[in-house]
Amino acid sequence: MPDVIVAAEVSGPLLLCEEGLSVWGGVDPATGEIIDAHHPQHGQFLTGKIVMMPTSRGSCTGSGVLLGLAFAQNAPHALIFRENEDILTLGALVATKLFDRPIAVLQLSASEYDRLSEEPEVTIREDALIAGDIRWPLAKKKAALALTAEDERFLSGAYGEAAQVAMEIITTMAMAQGASRLTDVARVHIDGCIYASPAFLTFARAMADKGGRVRLPTTMNAISVDHANWRSQGVAEEFGLPASQLADAYVEMGAKPSFTCAPYLLADKPAQGEDIAWAESNAVIYANSVLGARTLKHADFMDLCIALTGRAAQTGVYLDANRRPRRIIDVTVPEGIDDAFWPMLGWLVGQKAPDRIPLIRGLEHTPPTENDLKGLCAAYGTTSAAPMLHIAGITPEADLAPASDADHVTIGPANFAQLWQGFNRGAAKVDLVALGSPHFSTSECSAFADLMDGARVHPDVTTIITLGRQSLAEITTSGVKARLEGAGVKIVPDLCWCSISEPVFPPSAETLMTNSGKYAHYAPGLSQRAVRFGSLAQCADTARTGKAPEHPPLWIKPE
Predict the structure, then answer these.
(1) Quick check: pTM over 0.85?
(2) Catalytic (active site) residue 63
(3) Is 314 helix (H, G, I), strand (E, B) or coil?
(4) Which of 86, 405, 500, 524 sits a CA distance of 20 to 30 A from 491?
C-alpha cells in the first residue's frame, strides 16, 4: 500500500524522471523547466505534472525552490518517490500546510513504482491513487514518536509562535521519516539564506515576525549578493534588496553572518561524533565523511526550525547502523593525476551510488589534501542523494563493516575520459574563470596567487574568486589578497557561484572555466553559459591566455 507523506487531492499527466533531480540548479524557478543539462529529462516541465523520481539529489535549497515554484504556479501537482526523500518533501509540506499551495507526496514500493510508471495520467484522492486500472488505497505514513516534556512545551507555544511552528514541522517530518525520537544538536548551518525566489524571504520574514530566535550557535551559508557592496556592483534593486533583506532576517533571528558555503573552513569545526544540523549539500557531505560529525542533509526551512528548537529527528545517519556503506566502489587510479581528479571522482562516485552510501577503495596510496576532499564531496553531492561517503584508509569511519546487502561497482580510466568530454563542451576561447565553488580556502587562494605570480589576467578574461569572510580576512592579513588583485583577480565575498547573478557574473561572458566539479555540473543550467573544466593550474593558464587547454591532461586517456 503506498504511503502518503503529504496529503493533497490532485491529478495530472505523469512525468517519469529516470534519475533523481536537484530542483535547485536543475529547474528554472520561473517556468518549471528542467534545465540540468546532464539530466535525461532535460527540457521537460514539472508544472502541473505528477512527477515520479527514485529520490531527489543535490542541493538542500530544493525545498525553498519548490515553494517558490508553488507561489509562481509552476510546481508539480504531486511528487512520487521510490526511496526516502526529505528535501522536496519538506518544501511540499510547507507549501501545503503553511501557504495553502497543495503538493501531494507519496512513497511507493519498488514494484508499485515500476507499475505506476507505465501510466500516462494519475489521480490522487484522500484515500486512493487512481491510474488506468490501478486503484490503490493510501495510508498515512507515520511512526510512534516519543516526545520529551520540553518538546511538548515547544508544541504548546510556551516558547513563542515561531518555535511552535518549527516544532510542528520537525515532528511532522520526523514521523514521515520513521523516527522514534528527537535528538539534541550542537550547532546549525543555515542554507535557506540564498535568495532563489521570493518564497525564501516570505518564509524567513514570517518566522522572524513571529518572534523566532535561534537557541544554539548558528552559521549562515553564502548569500546571493555581496552584502556590503551589491549596489556599487550594479546589482538591480529588485534583486539586491530582497536578497540582502533575506540575509538580514536570519541575522535578526540570531544567526552569525558567516556567509560561507564551506563552514568546515571556519575556525570552530564540529568534532567527530558530534550531532549537528547542517544544510548545504557539500557541507553536509564533508561534515559526515571527512570530519566524522553527524548530520542529515537537512532541507532549507528545516535548518531554521532546528535552530529555533535545538532538536532534530534521530534518524538516517544520526544512527550508527545507517552510516555503513551499501556500495563498494573500486577505483583504478590513473598515473600522474592532478587536482582535477578529485572533483571528477566525486561526480563519478555519486553517479555510481546515487541513492546509497559508498565505500571507495583504491585511493589508499593517493592521499588527498583537505582541498581535494572539499572538491570531491561537493561534486559527489550533485549526482548522489546520499549524505556521506567513505574512502578506505582516509576518512575516519571507513572501517565500518559494509551492510549485508552491499554490492560492488568499479570506476576506471574510461569513466574519467567520458566525464572530461562532458565537462568540456565549451569553446576554447574563455571569457570568465570562476573559482570558489565551494568557497575557496586560504590555501587555495595562496596556491592560485603562486600560479599567477609575475603574470596578469588576460584583458579579455574576468577572473573571480568567491570566498567566505573569515578566509577574506586571513588572505588580507597575509598579503595574498594584494597579490591576487595585483594580478588582476577579483575577490568577491559572501556569495558563491551557485548563487551569483549578473552583473557580478559578467553579462558578456559566453564560456567559463572552473576547477569545480560542482559548478561544472550546475553552470550550464544556472548561467546559460558553456563550460570548460580543468585543474587549478589550467585555470591559471586560461586566466593568463584566454584559452582553455586544447587537450585533456596526460592522465586522462582517450576512450
Answers:
(1) yes
(2) no
(3) coil
(4) 524
